[in-house]
Amino acid sequence: MTEQGEAAPAGDAAPERHAPTVSELFWGFLSAGVSGFGGVLPFARRMIVEKRRWLTAEEFTDLWSLCQFLPGPNIVNMSIALGLRYRGLPGALAGALGLLGAPFFIMVGVGALYMRFGSVPQVKSVLAGISAVAAGLVLAMAIKMANTPRVRSWMALFAVLAFTAIAIARLPLATVLAVLAPMSIVAAWLRMRSALARTTGDGR
User: Which domain holds residue 55?
Assistant: First the structure.
């Protein structure tokens, strides 16, 4: 659901938003955690934006950007932030426990098997294949996130600069964030201010 007087961006999820209950937060993130072999994030995005429609694609990108900037595992930050947004502390706990519960026990079992059979050549081949699939999942999700209206605007320049600085120039992440984050915040504020001025002018 978009704000009054503002058109829904193309490609956003559903016209009407669904506010999840505490139990829905738990089971939703539990399903994402169990399904997320090779990486939870693509499955979590599909669950949040496309299936359950808790956030629009634009809102997901905004919240994910904040979670990416904060310390800690990004997807765990997402489950906590989304739970807090809708149901406060109980929602945050439900999201985090749902996300981490089942994968914790699965990982303990898989870790024990890896310690015993990790050196077997066939197991190494399986792990190499899983790594390729995981990289593909992350790339697919990145392409979906890049298709939001904000990232398709000139603000995408900051994404290109960040990618170039980290992936190509191999600059430290902290340095890149310290330089680009304030610049992108100021640019976004100026963009919003300009849009508001145009809206006000059109309404006169």
Answer: 7-148
Rounded CA-CA distance 186/189 in Å is: 5
**Better-scored residue on pLDDT, 69 or 63:** 63
Whether pLDDT at 3 is above 50? no
Q: Using 50, 70 and 90 to split pLDDT, how confident is the model at 127?
A: low
Q: Are 188 and 155 in contact (CB under 8 A)?
A: yes
- As a whole number of angstroms, the distance between CA 101 and CA 26 comes to 10
| Mean pLDDT, residues 76-103 taken together | 92
Q: Are residues 100 and 201 in the same domain?
A: no
**Domains contained in the chain, number:** 2
DSSP string, 104-148: HHHHHHHHHHHHHHTTSHHHHHHHHHHHHHHHHHHHHHHHHHHTS
Residue 1 forms part of a structural domain: no
Q: Does residue 106 share a domain with residue 197?
A: no
Percent of the chain with pLDDT over 90: 20
Over the Cα atoms of the chain, what is R_g? 20
